């Protein structure tokens, strides 16, 4: 197990210890590794021996992302005890948050495969955003001082709105330029955006493509309108569309912010490609 001790309002360590005891009661020898800094989870996962046949991520999407990055290219089942803020993949897969039910999942052996992508050299398994939503992510992380909470996004969104400047994004999908420009682009393999808003109930986890959400309007009012429509499931609309793609390239004359799975990832250009290797996630 690779656990973030501060996740779940600092319950990550206790949850990991409880989970380890439960696994050992049913005869599964288990090591609990507690992360202390960014990148620890990836380094520990990368160093695991071939004798390891199950890795469990205890924490949020960031911890899971480090585990998947460290395990890339290896056929190892991955379990998830979601304790973070967003938990987007866990919401999609209906993964339990309590230890007892999670133990049932981890010992049941049922898995689903998920696509992952390389984005500017980093791994993505959730959603890449370019435009105003990435500006909000930048604000959240700039002011962050401790564990992340959903409430941190409200003041960050207000600050980003006050500083909002419309961007003009040019997009290529699988090598084909899309006519016109866009104010916001999402490249997603999730049903829930941010763990809350349902954006694509029909998505397929392992079809070799991500959904690409193209929003034409870049003004502040336009982005507010898209957000409200997303909440009431009215997207796409007349000025937005959804396409499927394996490769995505996003550019802009003025640098536009980008995030990868909720973490700041610099600015445009953004080069995205779904990889051939998939990960196996244990599910109920």
Structure at a glance:
The protein has 284 residues and is an alpha+beta fold.
Topology diagram in text:
Layout: E1 2-3, H1 7-10, H2 12-25, E2 33-34, H3 40-46, E3 54-59, H4 61-70, E4 77-82, H5 88-93, H6 99-108, E5 111-114, E6 117-119, E7 122-124, E8 127-130, H7 132-143, H8 153-162, E9 170-173, E10 176-177, E11 184-188, E12 192-193, E13 197-198, E14 210-215, H9 220-231, E15 240-245, E16 247-251, E17 257-260, E18 263-267, E19 270-274, E20 279-282
Parallel strand pairs: 1-2, 1-3, 3-4, 4-20
Antiparallel strand pairs: 5-20, 6-7, 6-19, 8-11, 8-17, 9-10, 9-16, 11-14, 12-13, 14-15, 16-19, 17-18
Q: What can you tell me about this protein's structure?
A:
The protein has helices spanning 7-10, 12-25, 40-46, 61-70, 88-93, 99-108, 132-143, 153-162, 220-231, and strands at 2-3, 33-34, 54-59, 77-82, 111-114, 117-119, 122-124, 127-130, 170-173, 176-177, 184-188, 192-193, 197-198, 210-215, 240-245, 247-251, 257-260, 263-267, 270-274, 279-282. The protein folds into 2 domains: 2-109, 3-Layer(aba) Sandwich (Rossmann fold); 122-275, Tumour Suppressor Smad4 (Sandwich), CATH 2.60.200.40. The chain is globular and about 60 Å long. The longest helix has 14 residues, at 12-25. The strands form 4 sheets. It has a 6-stranded mixed beta sheet with strand order 2-1-3-4-20-5, sandwiched between helices. It has a 6-stranded antiparallel beta sheet with strand order 7-6-19-16-9-10. It is built from 9 helices and 20 strands. The two termini are 19 Å apart. The mean pLDDT is 92. By secondary structure, the protein is an alpha+beta fold.
